[in-house]
Amino acid sequence: MAPAPIDPAIVDVAAPRKDTLGLPKTAEQRLTKAGIDLSQGYPYRPSRPLYLDDVYKIRGEDRAYEDAGARADKSKNSLLSAATKVTDLTNYIGTEIEGLQLKDLTDQQRDELALLIAERSVVFFRNQDLTPQQQHDLGKYYGEVEVHPQVPQVPGLPGVSVMWPDLQATERQANFRNPGGASRWHTDLVHENQPAGITHLHNDTVPPTGGDTLWASGYAAYEKLSPEFRKIIDGRQAVYRSAHPYLDRANPEAGPKYIERIHPIVRVHPATGWKSLWVNRAMTDRIVGLDKAESDVILNYLYDVYEQNVDIQVRFKWTANTSAIWDNRITIHNASWDYGGRHPRHGTRVTSLAEKPFFKADAPTRREALGQLDQSEKKELGLTKDIKDFSLPNINMSELVESTAKLQLDEETGEMVSKGELKKRLKKREKAAATAKAREAKAAAAPAEKEAAPKVAKAAAAPANDEPAIDPQNMFKVGFLEDVFKIRPMKPVRTRFPPEPNGFLHIGHAKAIAVNFGFAKYHGGSCNLRYDDTNPESEEQVYFDAILEMIKWLGFNPSGITYSSDNFDKLYAHAEKLIGLGKAYVCLCSDAEIKDQRGGGEGRPRYRCKHAEQTAEYNLTEFRAMRDGKYKPQQAFLRMKQDQSMYRNTDVEMDPTNNSSITDGNPQMWDLAAYRVLEKPHFRTGDKWKIYPTYDFTHCLCDSYEGIFVLSRVSYEWLNTSLGVYEPMQREYGRLSIAGTVLSKRKILKMVETGIVRGWNDPRLYTLIGIKRRGVPPGAILEFVNELGVTTANTVIDIRRFEFAIRKYLERTVPRLMLVLDPVRVVIDDADGDIAAEGTPLTVPFNPKDASVGSHEVKFARTIYIDRNDFREEADKNFFRLAPGKSVGLLNAPFPIRAVSFTKDETTGKVTEIRAVPDRESKKQKTYIQWVAPVEFGSHRAEVRVYNSLFKSDNPNDAEGGFLNDINPDSEVVYPDALIESGFDEVKRRAPWPEAAGESELGKGGPESVRFQGIRVAYFAEDSDSTPEKIILNRIVALKEDGGKK
Q1: Nearest 5 degrees, angle CA 519-CA 522-CA 527?
Q2: How many domains does the chain have?
Q3: In which region does residue 646 sit, left (phi positive, over 0), alpha (psi from -120 to 50) or beta (all else)?
Q4: What is its EC number (predicted)?
Q5: Per annotation, catalytic residue among 735, 920, 989, 1046
Q6: What pLDDT digit, counting tens, does each position of 63-117 carry?
Q7: Mean pLDDT computed over 735-753
Q8: Deepest in the core among 139, 234, 744, 977, taking most CB within 10 A?
C-alpha cells in the first residue's frame, strides 16, 4: 500500500519513513491469523500533513453522536449475567470481567458495556481471541473511529493504530530518565472538535515484568476538590492542544505549531450525567481568561489532585491478549516504561470519537448520584435531601398476608403468635419477674442491697433487637480516634494494615482492618496493605491471597499493596547506621540468657548482656559476618540498644551513665531484636539474604518510608527518633479478642491436623475465613467493631455479645423463609375444597415487617411437613402447638389444622405421620408454626449444620490437660433431612443478603451471602460444600441466646 494522507484533499505532505523493525512473534502470529497483509512492511504510515490549516479541516465540523451507554439497560443484566466473574479492582475505578469474548457481544451487551465503562471508567478483559478487524468493528459501534494523520496503522485498517514502544524508540531515544512509550499522564485526542470517547487497547505482546498501565478517575478527582474550589473551575474553559506539531503555512520558520481547541475544564458524561474533572498535564495548555501565572497555579494543583491521590487510581498488570477499554471523557492514563525496552510490547488501539464536551451546572457528582455522601459532605454542599429517591411504591398484600404480618416473635419460646397473645404472655412474665424480685428484696439483709438490685438489673438489660443501627462512622467522630486526629490534623491521612503473611486472619484483625482503612477513608486519605514478609520460614502464597480476600470482603480496597521486602536494602542500610550511632549491637546470647536478662518472667531486676558494651566497629564487622553466613540461626542477633533516656513518655528517672541496667517497665524497650539469621530463601528476593529484619525493626521504618500518619508502639518512636527519619505519630489502641475460643495459629493448626475441625475455614473457628463461611455478614462485623469503639485497653469479648450483634444485624437485613430441621409428614384430610390437588399458591412476604423486600409464592399442599418438635403425642395445657385434638395455626396458610391421629415407627418409636383436618371453627390461634410442602411442589431437601461453641468453657487455654480436653462434643449437630421452602431459589438469586461492605452488589458474594432467617428456628447461610444437587446450610446464629423452646 503506497503512503497517502488520510484526507485526499491534503497535498502538502511529508513522505513517511520506512520501518524495518522486526515484529514480535506473538504479534506477527495474531496479525497473520487475521489475514493482515504484511508483505509491504509493517506498520503502514500515512503521509504526514505539513501545515496546521490542513489538519484543522480534518473532522472540523460538528457531527451527530449518540452515546451507547445512554440507551443501555441500567441493570446491565445481559452483560453481567453472561460473565463468569466480575471484579471491581478498586472502589472508584476499574473492573475486570471474565468469561466473555468481546467479538461475540450482542448489541445489547455492547450498550451495557458502554454504560459500565461510563460508570467504572475502565474495564479489562483477559484471554481475548480478537482480530484487529473485530476490534475496529466494536470501535465503530461506539462512534466514528478516529484515523490519526500521523500515527502508524495496521495495514488496510485505517483507525487501528499501532502501539509499539520499540518502534517509537527508533524515532525518539528513550532511557531510564526519559522513558519511552506513553509514560506521562494524558488523555487521548483532547485537541479534536469532538474529542475521544471510548478507547480500546488490545495488547498481544507484553513484557514478563513491568509495563503496567495506570488510570485515574476524573469523577473522583473532581470530588476531591472542596465545594468552594469547584465553584472556581465550574463552567471555566481551557485550551487543549495536540501532541503532534505542524507548521504555520504563512510562517513555516516560526517553529512547531499545535492544534488548539477550547473545551470545559469540568465536563458531564452523557450516559451517567455525572461531573468529571477533565484536564491533563501533557495537553491542557492554559485556562481561558486568566494570566499564565494564575492559570499555571490552578492547573498544576488540578494535575496533582489527579496524579497524587492513589485511591482514585487503578494500576493494571497486563497479560498477553488482554483488552483494556476506557472512557477518555472521565480518565487520564499513564503507561509505565519500567521494563526499559528490554522486552517487546505491542498492541493495537481503536478510539471512538464522542460528543462535543459540555458542562451542566446542576449535574451531580458520582457519589452524590449514588447516595454515597456522608452527612458532613451533604452539609458542606448544602444538600437537604439525598439526590436519589429510593422510596418504593406501596405494595397491596392480600388479607391473608396482612394478617400474617401482624404476627410477632415470642423470643422466650421461639413461636410466632398474635400481638394480643404476645402482650398477654409478656404481662404474665413481667408479673412473675416482679414477684421473684420482691422475694429477693425481702430476703436481702441490707436495705442498701434492696435499693441496688433494680439498678443492676437495669444496667444488665440488653438493648432491643429493633434498636436503630448506630452511625457506621461513629468511632471516627468521637472518642480516641477523634482525639488522635485532632492532635495532628494532617492531610492527606495515610494509614496501613501490615499483617504478617504467615497464617489466616482472625476476628482480632477485623478490628485493625476496620480502624486503619476506615480512619483513612473517613478523612479522605489512603490506606495501604503492606505485607510484612520478613520471615520466609512461615510465609506462603495462600496467606497472601487470603489476607487480600478478607480485606475486600470487609469492603475495603487497599490504595496500594506494598511489601516490607521492597525495603530490605534500605532497612539494612539503616541497621548499619544504627550500629554506627552506638544504638545496636550483635548479641550471641541464647534464648534462656535473654529471658533471664529480662527478669526471667519472675519480676527480677533486668540487665543488659555483656555484648552491649562492644564497640560500634566490632558490631559492624560482626553484623556483616551475620549477613555473609558466618552464623547459623539462633547463634547471633542484632539487638537495639534502646537508650531509655530518649524515651520521651516515661515518668522514670534515668541514670544516663548506667548502660548495664534496663529499668523501663515497658517490654517494648528491653533491647528488642532487629535482625536474625534465617537459612531460607525468600519468595521475592531469593537467596540474596541470610539475615532478615524483625517485625519491630521493619514495621516503623516502613511506616516512615511510606509517610504513614500514626504508629502503635513506643519502641517504634525510639527507633525513628534515633535514625532521624520521618516520625509518624505514636498512638497505640487496644486489641480485640474473643473469650471461649482459641486464636493461636499453632493451636488451630493442631485441631486441623487432628481432624477436630474441617480446616482453617471451619465455621466453628474465629478465623475470618471461618466466620465468613459460617455466614456472618461483613457488615455485621464492621458494625460490631464500630459499636465497641476504640480505646487503649485490650478488649476480650464474650462470644454471646458478638453473636448478639450479629443477630441484631441479621434481624433487619435478611429475608424470612420457612425451614423444618427434623420433618414429620402431616396429611390434611377433608380439605378437597380448600386445597387444589396441584397445590394452592400462596403469596408470602420475605419480611412481614418490611414490604419493600418483596414477596414470593409457595404451594400449600394436602401433605405438608412440620418440625418434629412442634408435635406432642399427648396434649398439654401449656403446650400451644400441635397435639391430638389440639389446633395450631400454619404461617401464611388459609386455615389452622387440628391433629386427629398419628402413626409411629415401632422400631424407633418416632412419629412418622400425623393426620389432621382443617379447623374451620377456630378464628384465632395462640401459636403459628412454620411448614414446608413436599419437594414436588418446589421445596428442597437440605443438610443443616447447627454450630455450637467449639469449647465447653469460657477459657479453653486454662483447661486441665490442655485446650484439646475442652472440646465440646456437641459443637456441630447435623440435620441431614431438613426441608426448605421454594422461596430459597429467589433468595439465592437475589443474594447477597444484605448488599453491604464487600458484598455490595448483586451476585458479588459466595454461597455464604445467601442468608435468611429460618422462621422460629435460626439464621442460616449456604455452605461452600453445597452443590446444585445437595443444599448444605450453616446456622449463623440462633434467634435468641439460649435457642431453646418450651
Answers
A1: 50
A2: 3
A3: alpha
A4: 6.1.1.18
A5: 735
A6: 888 999 999 988 898 899 889 999 999 989 999 999 999 999 999 999 999 999 9
A7: 87
A8: 139
CATH for 980:
2.40.240.10
Residue 726 pLDDT > 80 = no
Residue 113 lies in a domain: yes
DSSP 361-376: TTPPPHHHHTT---HH
How confident is residue 719, by pLDDT bands cut at 50, 70 and 90? confident
pTM (two decimals)? 0.56
As given in the structure block, the three cell numbers for residue 917 are: 383436618
Residues 577, 574: Cα–Cα separation, whole Å: 5
Q: What is the pLDDT of residue 736?
A: 80
d(CA 638, CA 623): 7
| Beta strands per DSSP E along 685-784 | 691-693, 710-711, 729-730, 736-738
Q: What SS3 class is residue 269?
A: coil
Last residue of a domain, one of 638, 670, 696: 696
Which residue's entry shows cell 465455621? 763
Q: Which domain holds residue 96?
A: 13-48+66-176+195-208+318-353
Q: Range with the lowest mean pLDDT among 47-61, 308-322, 449-463, 655-669?
A: 449-463
642 occurs within a structural domain: yes
3-class SS at 928? Answer: strand
224-233: long-range pairs with CB below 8 Å, 24+? 224/305, 224/309, 224/312, 224/524, 225/277, 225/305, 226/380, 227/380, 227/381, 227/382, 230/266, 232/298, 233/265, 233/266, 233/298, 233/302
Amino acid at the residue 801: R
- Check whether 426 has a pLDDT greater than 80: no
CA torsion through residues 245, 250, 254, 259, sign = negative
* Alpha-helical runs (H) found in 523-567: 541-553
Q: Does residue 921 have an active-site annotation?
A: no
Lowest mean pLDDT among 53-62, 136-145, 821-830: 53-62
Asked if residues 45 and 242 have their Cβ atoms less than 8 Å apart, the reply is no
The per-residue pLDDT for 710 is: 59
Beta-carbon contacts of residue 958 (< 8 Å; ≥ 6 apart): none
Grid coordinates given for 940? 428442597
Is residue 735 part of the annotated active site? The answer reads yes
pLDDT, residue 623, reads: 95
* Collapsed DSSP state (helix, strand, coil) of residue 119: helix
Residues 689 and 830 both lie in one domain: no
The whole-number pLDDT of residue 5 equals 73
Highest-confidence segment of 341-350, 588-597, 948-957, 975-984: 975-984
pLDDT digits (tens, 9 = 90+) for 365-384: 998 888 888 777 777 766 54
Domain limit, last residue, from 696, 719, 754:
696
Q: Residues for the chain: how many in total?
A: 1046
Torsion sign across C-alpha atoms 339, 341, 343, 345: positive
Looking at the structure, tell me whether residues 1029 and 894 fall in a common domain: yes
Q: Which of 745, 800, 941, 990 is labelled catalytic? A: 745
| C-alpha cell recorded at residue 1042 | 439460649
Q: Is residue 888 part of a domain?
A: yes
CA distance 1000 to 1003: 9
In the numeric block, which cell numbers belong to residue 391?
422510596
* Phi, psi angle pair for 989, to nearest 5°: -65, -35
Active-site choice (377, 411, 500, 986): 500
List, for residues 643-691, the tens digit of each pLDDT value. Answer: 654 443 434 333 334 455 666 666 777 888 999 999 899 988 999 999 9
Residue 450 lies in a domain: no
The pLDDT score that the predictor gives to residue 980 is: 97
Which DSSP category does 660 fall into?
Answer: S
Identify how many contiguous H helices and E strands the chain contains and give both numbers.
28, 46
Q: Is 680 a catalytic residue?
A: no
Tell me the chain's radius of gyration from C-alpha atoms.
35
CB atoms within 10 A of CB 736: 23
Please tell me the distance from the alpha carbon of residue 133 to that of residue 84, in angstroms, as a whole number: 26
Q: What is the CATH number of the domain that holds 96?
A: 3.60.130.10
- The CATH number given to whatever domain includes residue 672 is 3.90.800.10
